[in-house]
Amino acid sequence: GSAALLLFPCKPRSQVRVASLAASRVVMTMVACNVGDVTYALSYAELGDPSRVTDALVELRSALVANVDASEVHSAAFEWAGMTPNPQAMLIRVRGHLPDGTLVQEKAALFARGTRVYQVAMLGARLDEVAAGAFFESLSLAQ
Predict the structure, then answer these.
(1) Per residue in 8-22, pLDDT tens?
(2) Strands (E), 22-102
(3) Residue 98 CB coordination number (10 Å)
(4) Helical (H) or strand (E) element with 66
(5) What's the CA gap between 2 and 61, in Å, rounded?
(6) Of 129, 115, 109, whose CA–CA distance to 41 is shortest?
(7) Do 70 and 32 touch, CB atoms closer than 8 A?
């Protein structure tokens, strides 16, 4: 398990891949589903080394912005009960384009608990604020 729980508005599927993060290879797990054209996702990776957590959060943020060729980025500090405090824990909103040119918005939270980094995200042409609020507020970190 991820130690992070989220209430998805649809039945999520899980996929695992090896990714390069904070100068090493890690197993990244993504749990995601779609409602219409909106994707709801939780991704996480165990780094095993506290000294790599901050770099990993910075890299996740950079990738998030680059993946949608973001033209607009808003970020704010993110704090949640049970997370490990980190200056790179962020709540980010981006507007950009998918590779096929489709306009897209994304809202994401990046944070860590111990040596595990997390990304909670919603991605779609339009994000419903009520749905986004319900999804993000459903996050709980096992104590």
Answers:
(1) 999 999 999 999 999
(2) 24-35, 38-46, 72-77, 90-97
(3) 13
(4) helix 53-67
(5) 20
(6) 109
(7) no
Q: Residue 119: which H helix or E strand, with range?
A: strand 116-124
CB 10 within 8 A of CB 122: no
**Which residue, 37, 40, 41, 44, is CA-closest to 16?**
44
The residue assigned the tokens 């909670």 is: 120
- How many angstroms separate the CA atoms of 53 and 114, rounded? 8
**Cβ burial, residue 58 (10 Å; 0-12/13-18/19+):** middle
Contact 13, 42 (CB under 8 A): no
Q: How many CA atoms lie within 13 A of 129 on its CB side?
A: 0
pLDDT(2) > 80: no
> pLDDT tens-digit profile of 50-84?
999 999 999 999 999 999 999 889 999 999 999 99
Query: How does DSSP assign 98-115, residue by residue?
Result: -TT--EEEEEEEEEEETT
Q: Give phi and psi for 78, each to the nearest 5.
A: -125, 130
